């Protein structure tokens, strides 16, 4: 398998999942702004959406969208290692979290990366993000991870979102559960491996 990624972007989530699963994979860095690969070729030939992540499977097919990719990785890993079994209520809880992180949290961050966005608009999105972070903070009270005591691919995704807070000057100090969660996930060897491979450890 080959993961197309941009350092520190949401593609870090499937990168973490691959490291956690211990599956063999290659990395291909993408220049998101230019839509180019390292050899200068057109990334949209791989993923017409032009975004990361994309995962090329061994049969040559390409899967896009992080929540779908991490579930595929989880299903290729040892049973129960990164996701509950398909068809169980616990799996639907995982999908519930992946959808919430993707649509409510992740999408609220997008405008803050736009250099032309005005301060009033940025404050609007920061307030929206804080509301969602508070929701998650309350739901993980007393838990090690989103689903309880076991790490899942949803935790890797949430962790990546939380790493953006520092870059965007979003204060997490009022969310004690999230601060503890972020430190807990950051200490995992597979997370350290993925971040090192993307050149992020010196920025953490």
Give a written overview of the molecule.
- The protein is an alpha+beta fold and 204 residues long.
- The chain folds into 2 domains: 2-80 and 191-203, 3-Layer(aba) Sandwich (Glutaredoxin), CATH 3.40.30.10; 89-188, Up-down Bundle (Glutathione S-transferase Yfyf (Class Pi), Chain A, domain 2).
- It is built from 7 helices and 5 strands, in the order E-H-E-E-E-E-H-H-H-H-H-H.
- The protein has helices at residues 12-21, 66-76, 89-109, 119-139, 153-167, 176-186, 189-197; strands at 2-5, 26-31, 36-37, 54-56, 62-64.
- A 5-stranded mixed beta sheet has the order 3-2-1-4-5, covered by helices on one side.
Features:
2 domains; Glutaredoxin; Glutathione S-transferase Yfyf (Class Pi), Chain A, domain 2; 9% strand; 7 helices
What coarse outline follows from CA principal-axis ratios?
Answer: globular
Which stretches are poorly predicted, pLDDT < 50 over at least 5 residues?
A: none
Total individual domains: 2
Structural class: alpha+beta
CATH fold annotation of the largest domain: Glutathione S-transferase Yfyf (Class Pi), Chain A, domain 2
Percent of residues in helices comes to: 40-55%
Task: For the record, give the distance between the C-alpha atoms at the N and C termini, rounded to a whole number.
Answer: 27 Å
Radius of gyration: 17 Å
Largest sheet: 5 strands, mixed
Average pLDDT value? 95
Strand-residue proportion: 5-15%
Placed side by side, the strands forming the largest sheet appear as 3-2-1-4-5
The CATH level-2 architecture of the largest domain is identified as Up-down Bundle
- How many helices? The count is 7
The H-and-E topology, N to C, reads as EHEEEEHHHHHH
């Amino acid at each position: 398998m080959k993961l197309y990624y941009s350092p520190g972007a949401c593609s870090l989530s499937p990168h973490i999942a691959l490291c956690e699963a211990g599956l063999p994979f290659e990395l291909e860095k993408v220049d998101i702004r230019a839509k180019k690969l390292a050899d200068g070729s057109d990334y949209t030939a791989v993923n017409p959406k032009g975004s990361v992540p994309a995962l090329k499977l061994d049969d040559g097919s390409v899967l896009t969208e992080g929540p779908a990719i991490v579930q595929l990785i989880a299903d290729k890993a040892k049973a129960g290692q990164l996701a509950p079994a398909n068809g169980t209520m616990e799996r639907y809880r995982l999908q519930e979290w992946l959808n919430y992180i993707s649509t409510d949290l992740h999408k609220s961050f997008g405008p803050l990366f736009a250099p032309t966005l005005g301060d009033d608009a940025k404050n609007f999105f920061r307030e929206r993000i804080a509301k969602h972070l508070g929701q998650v903070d309350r739901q993980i009270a007393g838990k090690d991870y989103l689903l309880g005591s076991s790490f899942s691919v949803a935790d890797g995704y949430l962790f990546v979102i939380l790493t953006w807070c520092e870059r965007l000057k979003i204060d997490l100090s009022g969310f004690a559960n999230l601060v503890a969660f972020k430190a807990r996930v950051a200490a995992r060897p597979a997370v350290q491996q993925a971040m090192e491979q993307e050149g992020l450890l010196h920025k953490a």
